[in-house]
RNA sequence: GGUCACGUGGCCGAGUGGCUAGGCAGAGGUCUGCAAAACCUCGUACAGCGGUUCGACUCCGCUCGUGACCUCCA
Protein backbone atom coordinates (compact mmCIF):
# COMPACT_ATOMS: atom_id res chain seq x y z
CA UNK A 1 0.00 0.00 0.00
CA UNK A 2 1.89 3.10 1.10
CA UNK A 3 5.65 3.50 0.90
CA UNK A 4 5.83 2.88 4.62
CA UNK A 5 4.66 -0.65 4.29
CA UNK A 6 7.48 -1.59 1.99
CA UNK A 7 9.98 -1.31 4.77
CA UNK A 8 11.67 -4.63 5.38
CA UNK A 9 10.10 -6.74 8.04
CA UNK A 10 12.71 -8.15 10.39
CA UNK A 11 12.06 -11.38 12.21
CA UNK A 12 14.18 -13.28 14.68
CA UNK A 13 14.87 -16.67 13.17
CA UNK A 14 15.33 -19.05 16.07
CA UNK A 15 17.24 -21.39 13.79
CA UNK A 16 20.04 -18.86 13.29
CA UNK A 17 19.31 -16.99 16.53
CA UNK A 18 19.52 -13.77 14.57
CA UNK A 19 17.17 -11.08 13.42
CA UNK A 20 16.82 -11.45 9.68
CA UNK A 21 15.03 -9.62 6.95
CA UNK A 22 11.93 -11.60 6.09
CA UNK A 23 11.71 -12.42 2.40
CA UNK A 24 9.08 -15.00 1.45
CA UNK A 25 10.03 -17.67 -1.05
CA UNK A 26 7.26 -16.63 -3.41
CA UNK A 27 6.04 -13.12 -2.63
CA UNK A 28 3.43 -11.91 -2.09
CA UNK A 29 2.49 -15.35 -0.76
CA UNK A 30 3.57 -16.43 2.69
CA UNK A 31 3.21 -19.90 4.14
CA UNK A 32 2.78 -19.93 7.91
CA UNK A 33 2.43 -23.06 10.02
CA UNK A 34 1.76 -22.97 13.75
CA UNK A 35 1.59 -25.99 16.03
CA UNK A 36 -1.93 -26.02 17.38
CA UNK A 37 -3.36 -27.48 20.56
CA UNK A 38 -3.80 -31.06 21.62
CA UNK A 39 -7.51 -31.25 22.22
CA UNK A 40 -7.71 -33.51 25.22
CA UNK A 41 -8.37 -30.82 27.83
CA UNK A 42 -9.27 -27.14 28.09
CA UNK A 43 -6.79 -24.67 26.65
CA UNK A 44 -5.06 -22.62 29.26
CA UNK A 45 -3.76 -19.12 29.08
CA UNK A 46 -0.28 -20.04 27.94
CA UNK A 47 -1.76 -21.52 24.79
CA UNK A 48 -3.80 -18.40 24.33
CA UNK A 49 -0.70 -16.26 24.53
CA UNK A 50 1.10 -18.25 21.87
CA UNK A 51 -1.83 -18.23 19.49
CA UNK A 52 -2.42 -14.55 20.11
CA UNK A 53 1.19 -13.77 19.23
CA UNK A 54 0.90 -15.70 15.99
CA UNK A 55 -2.39 -13.97 15.35
CA UNK A 56 -0.45 -10.72 15.62
CA UNK A 57 2.09 -12.03 13.10
CA UNK A 58 -0.69 -13.11 10.75
CA UNK A 59 -2.42 -9.77 11.07
CA UNK A 60 0.80 -7.84 10.52
CA UNK A 61 1.91 -9.81 7.47
CA UNK A 62 -1.55 -9.33 6.01
CA UNK A 63 -1.53 -5.66 6.90
CA UNK A 64 1.73 -5.00 5.08
CA UNK A 65 0.36 -6.63 1.99
CA UNK A 66 1.25 -10.32 2.05
CA UNK A 67 -1.17 -13.05 1.09
CA UNK A 68 -0.79 -15.45 3.97
CA UNK A 69 -1.86 -19.05 4.09
CA UNK A 70 -2.06 -19.70 7.80
CA UNK A 71 -2.16 -23.36 8.76
CA UNK A 72 -2.72 -24.30 12.38
CA UNK A 73 -3.35 -27.93 13.16
CA UNK A 74 -5.55 -29.64 15.69
CA UNK A 75 -3.80 -32.55 17.35
CA UNK A 76 -6.58 -35.04 17.81
CA UNK A 77 -4.46 -38.13 18.19
CA UNK A 78 -2.79 -37.79 21.53
CA UNK A 79 0.94 -37.71 21.72
CA UNK A 80 2.25 -40.77 23.44
CA UNK A 81 2.51 -40.59 27.15
CA UNK A 82 5.96 -40.56 28.68
CA UNK A 83 5.93 -44.25 29.29
CA UNK A 84 5.61 -45.55 25.78
CA UNK A 85 5.11 -49.11 27.01
CA UNK A 86 1.59 -48.53 28.18
CA UNK A 87 0.65 -47.68 24.64
CA UNK A 88 -2.06 -45.31 25.66
CA UNK A 89 -2.24 -41.81 24.32
CA UNK A 90 -3.68 -38.69 25.83
CA UNK A 91 -6.87 -38.63 23.91
CA UNK A 92 -7.60 -42.22 24.84
CA UNK A 93 -6.82 -41.52 28.44
CA UNK A 94 -9.16 -38.54 28.43
CA UNK A 95 -11.85 -40.67 26.83
CA UNK A 96 -11.49 -43.39 29.41
CA UNK A 97 -11.63 -40.96 32.28
CA UNK A 98 -14.77 -39.31 31.05
CA UNK A 99 -16.32 -42.40 29.47
CA UNK A 100 -16.58 -40.76 26.11
CA UNK A 101 -15.77 -41.75 22.58
CA UNK A 102 -12.31 -40.45 21.70
CA UNK A 103 -13.75 -38.33 18.93
CA UNK A 104 -16.28 -36.95 21.39
CA UNK A 105 -13.40 -35.77 23.56
CA UNK A 106 -11.77 -34.28 20.51
CA UNK A 107 -14.92 -32.51 19.42
CA UNK A 108 -15.66 -31.14 22.86
CA UNK A 109 -12.26 -29.56 23.35
CA UNK A 110 -11.98 -28.42 19.77
CA UNK A 111 -15.23 -26.54 20.21
CA UNK A 112 -13.94 -25.07 23.44
CA UNK A 113 -10.71 -24.05 21.78
CA UNK A 114 -12.55 -22.30 18.98
CA UNK A 115 -14.77 -20.48 21.43
CA UNK A 116 -11.74 -19.20 23.30
CA UNK A 117 -10.01 -18.12 20.11
CA UNK A 118 -13.08 -16.12 19.15
CA UNK A 119 -13.38 -14.66 22.61
CA UNK A 120 -9.85 -13.31 22.36
CA UNK A 121 -10.50 -12.16 18.80
CA UNK A 122 -7.93 -14.38 17.14
CA UNK A 123 -8.59 -14.73 13.44
CA UNK A 124 -9.34 -18.17 12.05
CA UNK A 125 -6.46 -19.83 10.25
CA UNK A 126 -6.81 -20.48 6.54
CA UNK A 127 -6.63 -24.23 7.08
CA UNK A 128 -7.06 -26.10 10.34
CA UNK A 129 -6.12 -29.68 9.54
CA UNK A 130 -6.46 -32.57 11.96
CA UNK A 131 -4.06 -35.44 12.49
CA UNK A 132 -6.81 -38.04 12.15
CA UNK A 133 -7.73 -36.56 8.80
CA UNK A 134 -4.22 -37.20 7.47
CA UNK A 135 -3.52 -40.82 8.31
CA UNK A 136 -2.82 -41.78 4.72
CA UNK A 137 -0.32 -38.97 4.31
CA UNK A 138 1.34 -39.88 7.61
CA UNK A 139 1.70 -43.49 6.59
CA UNK A 140 3.15 -42.23 3.32
CA UNK A 141 5.75 -40.20 5.16
CA UNK A 142 6.71 -43.12 7.36
CA UNK A 143 7.25 -45.13 4.17
CA UNK A 144 9.45 -42.42 2.68
CA UNK A 145 11.55 -42.27 5.83
CA UNK A 146 11.91 -46.06 5.88
CA UNK A 147 12.94 -45.95 2.25
CA UNK A 148 15.61 -43.36 2.96
CA UNK A 149 17.05 -45.69 5.59
CA UNK A 150 16.57 -43.43 8.60
CA UNK A 151 13.94 -45.58 10.25
CA UNK A 152 13.49 -49.20 11.25
CA UNK A 153 10.57 -51.39 12.14
CA UNK A 154 10.27 -53.35 15.36
CA UNK A 155 7.18 -55.34 16.36
CA UNK A 156 4.81 -53.29 14.29
CA UNK A 157 6.28 -49.96 15.37
CA UNK A 158 8.53 -47.78 13.29
CA UNK A 159 11.26 -45.71 14.92
CA UNK A 160 13.34 -42.87 13.60
CA UNK A 161 17.03 -43.72 13.83
CA UNK A 162 18.43 -40.57 15.42
CA UNK A 163 22.11 -41.60 15.75
CA UNK A 164 22.27 -42.66 12.12
CA UNK A 165 20.60 -39.47 10.98
CA UNK A 166 22.86 -37.36 13.17
CA UNK A 167 25.93 -39.03 11.76
CA UNK A 168 24.98 -38.30 8.18
CA UNK A 169 22.91 -35.12 8.41
CA UNK A 170 22.79 -32.36 10.96
CA UNK A 171 20.68 -32.89 14.03
CA UNK A 172 20.14 -30.52 16.91
CA UNK A 173 20.79 -27.26 15.12
CA UNK A 174 17.48 -25.65 16.07
CA UNK A 175 17.65 -26.46 19.76
CA UNK A 176 21.41 -26.23 20.08
CA UNK A 177 21.75 -29.84 21.13
CA UNK A 178 24.82 -31.88 20.43
CA UNK A 179 24.21 -35.49 19.67
CA UNK A 180 27.10 -36.69 21.82
CA UNK A 181 25.76 -34.85 24.84
CA UNK A 182 22.30 -36.18 24.21
CA UNK A 183 23.63 -39.70 23.92
CA UNK A 184 25.61 -39.29 27.12
CA UNK A 185 22.69 -37.80 28.92
CA UNK A 186 19.73 -39.97 28.21
CA UNK A 187 17.58 -41.34 30.90
CA UNK A 188 16.70 -44.93 31.61
CA UNK A 189 15.53 -47.07 28.77
CA UNK A 190 12.97 -48.97 30.79
CA UNK A 191 10.10 -49.97 28.59
CA UNK A 192 11.89 -48.81 25.50
CA UNK A 193 13.31 -52.16 24.48
CA UNK A 194 11.96 -51.78 20.97
CA UNK A 195 14.23 -48.83 20.34
CA UNK A 196 17.81 -49.26 19.26
CA UNK A 197 18.66 -46.03 21.00
CA UNK A 198 16.81 -44.00 23.62
CA UNK A 199 16.96 -40.94 21.38
CA UNK A 200 15.02 -42.70 18.65
CA UNK A 201 11.42 -41.66 18.46
CA UNK A 202 8.32 -43.42 17.19
CA UNK A 203 6.92 -42.36 13.86
CA UNK A 204 4.41 -45.21 13.88
CA UNK A 205 3.36 -47.05 17.01
CA UNK A 206 1.87 -50.48 17.32
CA UNK A 207 -1.45 -50.32 19.20
CA UNK A 208 -2.32 -52.63 22.05
CA UNK A 209 -5.76 -54.24 21.76
CA UNK A 210 -7.23 -51.94 24.41
CA UNK A 211 -5.93 -48.83 22.70
CA UNK A 212 -8.86 -46.77 21.47
CA UNK A 213 -7.55 -44.79 18.53
CA UNK A 214 -5.91 -47.01 15.92
CA UNK A 215 -5.70 -47.54 12.21
CA UNK A 216 -4.41 -50.21 9.84
CA UNK A 217 -1.00 -49.69 8.28
CA UNK A 218 1.66 -51.69 6.44
CA UNK A 219 3.12 -52.45 9.88
CA UNK A 220 -0.12 -53.57 11.49
CA UNK A 221 -2.76 -51.82 13.57
CA UNK A 222 -1.38 -48.72 15.19
CA UNK A 223 -1.28 -44.96 15.33
CA UNK A 224 1.09 -42.23 14.16
CA UNK A 225 3.97 -40.97 16.30
CA UNK A 226 4.31 -37.66 18.07
CA UNK A 227 5.91 -35.41 15.62
CA UNK A 228 4.73 -36.73 12.32
CA UNK A 229 1.48 -34.88 11.82
CA UNK A 230 3.04 -31.43 11.71
CA UNK A 231 5.59 -32.51 9.14
CA UNK A 232 2.93 -34.12 7.04
CA UNK A 233 0.36 -31.37 7.16
CA UNK A 234 2.80 -28.52 6.67
CA UNK A 235 4.23 -30.33 3.67
CA UNK A 236 0.80 -31.04 2.24
CA UNK A 237 -0.54 -27.50 2.49
CA UNK A 238 2.57 -25.34 2.31
CA UNK A 239 5.11 -27.41 0.42
CA UNK A 240 8.31 -29.20 1.29
CA UNK A 241 9.95 -25.94 2.20
CA UNK A 242 7.81 -23.13 3.50
CA UNK A 243 8.32 -19.70 5.04
CA UNK A 244 7.50 -19.59 8.73
CA UNK A 245 6.98 -22.31 11.28
CA UNK A 246 6.02 -21.27 14.77
CA UNK A 247 5.10 -22.57 18.16
CA UNK A 248 5.89 -22.20 21.82
CA UNK A 249 9.49 -22.39 23.02
CA UNK A 250 8.78 -25.65 24.74
CA UNK A 251 8.22 -27.29 21.37
CA UNK A 252 11.70 -26.51 20.11
CA UNK A 253 13.03 -29.74 21.50
CA UNK A 254 12.24 -32.40 20.75
CA UNK A 255 9.16 -31.67 18.66
CA UNK A 256 10.51 -29.23 16.11
CA UNK A 257 13.90 -30.84 16.00
CA UNK A 258 12.20 -34.09 15.11
CA UNK A 259 10.11 -32.39 12.47
CA UNK A 260 13.24 -31.14 10.77
CA UNK A 261 14.83 -34.58 10.91
CA UNK A 262 11.72 -36.24 9.51
CA UNK A 263 11.39 -33.83 6.64
CA UNK A 264 15.03 -34.04 5.72
CA UNK A 265 14.94 -37.82 5.94
CA UNK A 266 11.72 -38.15 3.93
CA UNK A 267 12.10 -35.43 1.35
CA UNK A 268 15.73 -34.41 1.44
CA UNK A 269 15.24 -30.77 2.25
CA UNK A 270 15.01 -28.33 5.11
CA UNK A 271 11.32 -27.80 5.73
CA UNK A 272 11.36 -24.29 7.17
CA UNK A 273 12.98 -21.01 6.19
CA UNK A 274 12.22 -19.02 9.35
CA UNK A 275 11.51 -20.57 12.73
CA UNK A 276 9.71 -18.45 15.28
CA UNK A 277 9.16 -19.33 18.92
CA UNK A 278 7.11 -17.53 21.51
CA UNK A 279 8.18 -17.44 25.11
CA UNK A 280 6.32 -18.76 28.09
CA UNK A 281 3.69 -17.20 30.25
CA UNK A 282 4.64 -17.31 33.91
CA UNK A 283 2.69 -16.94 37.10
CA UNK A 284 4.63 -15.60 40.03
CA UNK A 285 7.79 -16.30 38.07
CA UNK A 286 6.99 -19.92 37.26
CA UNK A 287 5.96 -21.29 33.92
CA UNK A 288 2.26 -21.76 33.61
CA UNK A 289 1.81 -25.41 32.84
CA UNK A 290 -0.59 -28.23 33.16
CA UNK A 291 1.66 -30.20 35.45
CA UNK A 292 2.31 -27.26 37.81
CA UNK A 293 -1.39 -26.73 38.25
CA UNK A 294 -0.85 -22.98 38.20
CA UNK A 295 -2.71 -22.36 34.99
CA UNK A 296 -6.14 -20.93 34.79
CA UNK A 297 -8.56 -21.34 31.98
CA UNK A 298 -9.69 -18.33 30.02
CA UNK A 299 -13.09 -18.85 31.57
CA UNK A 300 -11.70 -18.56 35.09
CA UNK A 301 -9.77 -15.47 34.06
CA UNK A 302 -12.88 -13.73 32.80
CA UNK A 303 -14.99 -14.74 35.78
CA UNK A 304 -12.21 -14.22 38.31
CA UNK A 305 -13.07 -17.57 39.83
CA UNK A 306 -9.58 -18.80 40.71
CA UNK A 307 -7.53 -18.56 43.86
CA UNK A 308 -4.81 -16.54 42.11
CA UNK A 309 -7.23 -13.98 40.72
CA UNK A 310 -8.57 -11.05 42.68
CA UNK A 311 -11.34 -10.55 40.15
CA UNK A 312 -12.24 -11.13 36.53
CA UNK A 313 -10.64 -9.43 33.54
CA UNK A 314 -12.12 -8.89 30.09
CA UNK A 315 -10.69 -10.81 27.16
CA UNK A 316 -9.56 -7.58 25.50
CA UNK A 317 -7.77 -6.50 28.67
CA UNK A 318 -5.92 -9.79 28.64
CA UNK A 319 -5.14 -9.52 24.95
CA UNK A 320 -3.84 -5.98 25.39
CA UNK A 321 -1.77 -7.08 28.37
CA UNK A 322 -0.18 -9.81 26.28
CA UNK A 323 0.51 -7.44 23.41
CA UNK A 324 2.31 -5.05 25.75
CA UNK A 325 5.05 -7.65 26.04
CA UNK A 326 7.33 -8.80 23.22
CA UNK A 327 6.55 -12.34 22.07
CA UNK A 328 10.10 -13.57 22.76
CA UNK A 329 10.09 -12.48 26.41
CA UNK A 330 8.52 -14.32 29.25
CA UNK A 331 5.44 -12.57 30.49
CA UNK A 332 4.56 -12.65 34.14
CA UNK A 333 0.96 -12.69 35.11
CA UNK A 334 -0.27 -10.81 38.13
CA UNK A 335 -3.38 -9.01 39.24
CA UNK A 336 -1.53 -5.74 39.51
CA UNK A 337 -0.17 -5.98 35.97
CA UNK A 338 -3.58 -6.92 34.61
CA UNK A 339 -5.22 -3.99 36.31
CA UNK A 340 -2.60 -1.65 34.89
CA UNK A 341 -3.32 -3.01 31.42
CA UNK A 342 -7.02 -2.55 31.98
CA UNK A 343 -6.64 1.11 32.84
CA UNK A 344 -4.27 1.73 29.98
CA UNK A 345 -6.57 0.08 27.47
CA UNK A 346 -9.47 2.12 28.76
CA UNK A 347 -7.51 5.32 28.17
CA UNK A 348 -6.59 4.17 24.67
CA UNK A 349 -10.16 3.32 23.76
CA UNK A 350 -11.47 6.57 25.24
CA UNK A 351 -9.08 8.47 23.00
CA UNK A 352 -10.30 6.52 19.99
CA UNK A 353 -13.87 7.62 20.73
CA UNK A 354 -12.74 11.15 21.42
CA UNK A 355 -10.95 11.31 18.09
CA UNK A 356 -14.27 10.99 16.31
CA UNK A 357 -15.59 14.03 18.14
CA UNK A 358 -12.49 16.17 17.55
CA UNK A 359 -12.78 19.33 15.51
CA UNK A 360 -10.13 20.21 12.92
CA UNK A 361 -8.01 23.30 13.32
CA UNK A 362 -5.99 25.24 10.80
CA UNK A 363 -2.50 24.15 11.76
CA UNK A 364 -0.64 21.01 12.81
CA UNK A 365 0.88 20.95 16.28
CA UNK A 366 1.90 17.31 16.07
CA UNK A 367 3.84 15.23 13.56
CA UNK A 368 1.38 12.56 12.51
CA UNK A 369 3.42 11.12 9.61
CA UNK A 370 6.34 10.74 12.01
CA UNK A 371 4.15 8.93 14.47
CA UNK A 372 2.84 6.66 11.74
CA UNK A 373 6.37 5.88 10.63
CA UNK A 374 7.41 4.95 14.14
CA UNK A 375 4.45 2.59 14.46
CA UNK A 376 5.46 0.79 11.27
CA UNK A 377 9.12 0.76 12.27
CA UNK A 378 8.27 -0.83 15.60
CA UNK A 379 6.16 -3.58 14.09
CA UNK A 380 8.64 -4.22 11.31
CA UNK A 381 11.31 -4.65 13.95
CA UNK A 382 10.52 -8.22 14.94
CA UNK A 383 6.89 -7.50 15.73
CA UNK A 384 7.63 -5.07 18.52
CA UNK A 385 4.08 -4.47 19.68
CA UNK A 386 5.13 -2.97 23.05
CA UNK A 387 6.93 -0.14 21.30
CA UNK A 388 4.09 0.31 18.83
CA UNK A 389 1.68 0.56 21.75
CA UNK A 390 3.94 3.15 23.36
CA UNK A 391 3.58 5.20 20.16
CA UNK A 392 -0.16 4.73 20.37
CA UNK A 393 -0.09 6.31 23.81
CA UNK A 394 1.72 9.26 22.27
CA UNK A 395 -1.23 9.43 19.90
CA UNK A 396 -3.58 9.34 22.89
CA UNK A 397 -1.84 12.34 24.37
CA UNK A 398 -2.20 14.22 21.08
CA UNK A 399 -5.87 13.32 20.76
CA UNK A 400 -6.62 14.46 24.28
CA UNK A 401 -4.73 17.72 23.80
CA UNK A 402 -6.66 18.42 20.63
CA UNK A 403 -9.86 17.57 22.43
CA UNK A 404 -8.97 20.00 25.19
CA UNK A 405 -8.22 22.67 22.61
CA UNK A 406 -4.59 22.81 23.68
CA UNK A 407 -3.31 21.56 20.35
CA UNK A 408 -4.63 21.65 16.82
CA UNK A 409 -4.61 19.31 13.86
CA UNK A 410 -5.86 20.02 10.35
CA UNK A 411 -8.66 17.88 9.02
CA UNK A 412 -6.14 16.01 6.86
CA UNK A 413 -3.96 15.17 9.84
CA UNK A 414 -6.94 14.32 11.97
CA UNK A 415 -8.14 11.87 9.36
CA UNK A 416 -4.67 10.37 9.00
CA UNK A 417 -4.41 9.94 12.76
CA UNK A 418 -7.85 8.37 12.86
CA UNK A 419 -6.94 5.89 10.14
CA UNK A 420 -3.64 5.08 11.82
CA UNK A 421 -5.11 4.48 15.25
CA UNK A 422 -8.00 2.45 13.96
CA UNK A 423 -5.86 0.22 11.79
CA UNK A 424 -3.28 -0.33 14.53
CA UNK A 425 -5.77 -0.97 17.33
CA UNK A 426 -8.49 -2.85 15.50
CA UNK A 427 -6.74 -4.52 12.56
CA UNK A 428 -3.21 -5.10 13.78
CA UNK A 429 -3.59 -5.55 17.53
CA UNK A 430 -7.02 -7.06 17.08
CA UNK A 431 -8.58 -5.16 19.96
CA UNK A 432 -12.34 -4.93 19.91
CA UNK A 433 -14.19 -2.22 21.79
CA UNK A 434 -15.29 -4.09 24.89
CA UNK A 435 -18.29 -1.92 25.55
CA UNK A 436 -20.42 -1.85 22.45
CA UNK A 437 -20.73 1.88 21.96
CA UNK A 438 -22.28 1.32 18.59
CA UNK A 439 -25.49 -0.20 19.84
CA UNK A 440 -26.10 1.84 22.96
CA UNK A 441 -29.80 1.85 23.52
CA UNK A 442 -31.23 5.07 22.15
CA UNK A 443 -33.86 5.06 24.88
CA UNK A 444 -31.15 4.85 27.50
CA UNK A 445 -29.19 7.63 25.87
CA UNK A 446 -32.31 9.78 25.71
CA UNK A 447 -32.95 9.21 29.40
CA UNK A 448 -29.40 10.07 30.38
CA UNK A 449 -29.50 13.18 28.21
CA UNK A 450 -32.64 14.20 30.06
CA UNK A 451 -30.83 13.87 33.39
CA UNK A 452 -27.94 15.84 32.02
CA UNK A 453 -30.36 18.64 31.11
CA UNK A 454 -31.93 18.59 34.58
CA UNK A 455 -28.51 18.75 36.12
CA UNK A 456 -27.52 21.68 33.90
CA UNK A 457 -30.61 23.54 35.02
CA UNK A 458 -29.76 22.90 38.65
CA UNK A 459 -26.19 24.01 38.07
CA UNK A 460 -27.41 27.17 36.35
CA UNK A 461 -29.36 27.93 39.54
CA UNK A 462 -26.24 27.05 41.54
CA UNK A 463 -28.23 24.31 43.17
CA UNK A 464 -25.22 22.04 43.51
CA UNK A 465 -26.90 19.75 45.99
CA UNK A 466 -29.34 18.70 43.28
CA UNK A 467 -26.76 18.55 40.50
CA UNK A 468 -24.41 16.41 42.58
CA UNK A 469 -27.25 14.17 43.64
CA UNK A 470 -28.11 13.50 39.99
CA UNK A 471 -24.49 12.74 39.19
CA UNK A 472 -24.00 10.50 42.20
CA UNK A 473 -27.18 8.53 41.65
CA UNK A 474 -26.28 7.92 38.02
CA UNK A 475 -22.87 6.69 39.13
CA UNK A 476 -24.71 4.26 41.35
CA UNK A 477 -26.37 2.93 38.21
CA UNK A 478 -23.05 2.60 36.43
CA UNK A 479 -23.28 5.79 34.44
CA UNK A 480 -20.41 8.25 34.69
CA UNK A 481 -20.96 11.85 33.66
CA UNK A 482 -18.02 13.85 32.39
CA UNK A 483 -18.12 17.63 32.17
CA UNK A 484 -16.15 19.13 29.33
CA UNK A 485 -15.94 22.56 27.77
CA UNK A 486 -18.41 21.48 25.12
CA UNK A 487 -20.96 20.03 27.50
CA UNK A 488 -21.43 16.81 29.37
CA UNK A 489 -20.84 13.32 28.02
CA UNK A 490 -21.52 9.99 29.65
CA UNK A 491 -20.29 6.46 29.57
CA UNK A 492 -20.89 3.19 31.31
CA UNK A 493 -18.41 2.20 33.93
C1' G B 1 24.28 -33.02 36.18
C1' G B 2 24.19 -30.98 30.77
C1' U B 3 22.50 -26.93 27.52
C1' C B 4 20.43 -22.10 27.07
C1' A B 5 18.13 -17.68 28.60
C1' C B 6 17.15 -13.75 31.83
C1' G B 7 17.96 -10.24 36.26
C1' U B 8 15.66 -2.53 34.34
C1' G B 9 12.66 2.67 39.11
C1' G B 10 6.52 0.54 43.77
C1' C B 11 4.32 -3.04 39.72
C1' C B 12 4.28 -4.64 34.32
C1' G B 13 7.47 -4.07 30.56
C1' A B 14 10.75 -1.70 25.79
C1' G B 15 15.51 -0.31 24.38
C1' U B 16 20.47 1.30 23.67
C1' G B 17 27.98 2.02 23.84
C1' G B 18 27.15 8.71 25.07
C1' C B 19 20.61 11.36 23.44
C1' U B 20 12.86 10.93 27.56
C1' A B 21 10.63 4.17 26.07
C1' G B 22 5.58 3.41 27.37
C1' G B 23 1.57 1.83 30.70
C1' C B 24 -0.25 1.47 35.85
C1' A B 25 0.43 3.30 40.72
C1' G B 26 2.43 7.81 43.48
C1' A B 27 3.61 13.44 44.16
C1' G B 28 2.78 18.59 42.64
C1' G B 29 0.20 21.89 39.30
C1' U B 30 -3.73 23.64 35.50
C1' C B 31 -8.95 23.31 34.51
C1' U B 32 -13.72 22.71 37.55
C1' G B 33 -18.68 25.33 42.25
C1' C B 34 -16.91 20.33 43.74
C1' A B 35 -15.78 15.69 41.53
C1' A B 36 -14.48 12.65 37.38
C1' A B 37 -11.82 13.00 32.93
C1' A B 38 -7.96 15.50 30.51
C1' C B 39 -3.34 18.24 30.12
C1' C B 40 1.66 19.84 32.24
C1' U B 41 5.78 18.70 35.61
C1' C B 42 8.33 15.10 38.77
C1' G B 43 11.35 9.56 40.10
C1' U B 44 18.29 10.92 37.69
C1' A B 45 16.08 2.42 37.28
C1' C B 46 19.12 -0.80 34.82
C1' A B 47 21.53 -7.75 40.39
C1' G B 48 26.88 -7.58 42.55
C1' C B 49 32.22 -7.35 41.59
C1' G B 50 36.05 -6.70 38.19
C1' G B 51 37.75 -5.58 33.01
C1' U B 52 37.65 -3.17 27.87
C1' U B 53 36.55 2.07 26.48
C1' C B 54 37.25 9.07 26.28
C1' G B 55 32.49 7.07 28.04
C1' A B 56 28.62 0.96 29.73
C1' C B 57 22.61 -0.11 31.95
C1' U B 58 24.23 -1.59 26.97
C1' C B 59 30.67 -5.32 25.26
C1' C B 60 33.87 -9.22 28.13
C1' G B 61 34.79 -12.21 32.63
C1' C B 62 33.41 -13.90 37.35
C1' U B 63 29.78 -14.21 41.43
C1' C B 64 24.86 -14.39 43.14
C1' G B 65 19.71 -15.02 41.90
C1' U B 66 15.62 -16.68 38.80
C1' G B 67 13.76 -19.45 34.92
C1' A B 68 13.38 -22.72 30.54
C1' C B 69 14.71 -27.17 27.94
C1' C B 70 16.91 -32.12 28.54
C1' U B 71 9.91 -36.30 29.71
C1' C B 72 3.76 -34.59 27.65
C1' C B 73 2.93 -29.18 27.56
C1' A B 74 2.09 -23.13 23.51
Topology (elements, then pairings):
Layout lengths: L9 E4 L4 E4 L7 E6 L10 H19 L3 E6 L17 H9 L3 H18 L15 H14 L2 E4 L2 E4 L1 H7 L10 H6 L16 E6 L15 E3 L3 H11 L3 E7 L3 H16 L4 E7 L2 E3 L2 E2 L10 H6 L11 H9 L7 E3 L1 H22 L11 H13 L4 H19 L7 H18 L13 H19 L3 H13 L2 E6 L2 E6 L1
Parallel strand pairs: 3-4, 3-9, 9-10, 11-13
Antiparallel strand pairs: 1-2, 5-6, 6-7, 7-8, 11-12, 14-15
Helix pairs in contact: 2-3, 4-7, 4-8, 7-8, 10-11, 11-13, 12-13, 12-14, 15-16
The structure holds one RNA strand of 74 nucleotides.
Structural class: alpha/beta
Q: Determine the CATH topology of the largest domain.
A: Rossmann fold
Unreliable segments of 5+ consecutive residues: 80-87
Assign an overall shape: elongated
**How would you name the CATH homologous superfamily of the largest domain?**
HUPs
Task: Quote the beta fraction.
Answer: 5-15%
Strands in their spatial order, largest beta sheet: 4-3-9-10
Instruction: Please identify the top-level CATH class of the largest domain.
Output: Alpha Beta
Largest sheet: 4 strands, parallel
Integer average pLDDT = 87
The total number of structural domains is: 3
Nearest-angstrom radius of gyration?
Answer: 27 Å
Any guess at the CATH architecture of the largest domain?
3-Layer(aba) Sandwich
Q: What distance lies between the first and last C-alpha atoms, to the nearest angstrom? A: 39 Å
Helix content percent band: 40-55%
Q: In total, how many beta strands?
A: 15
Number of helices: 16
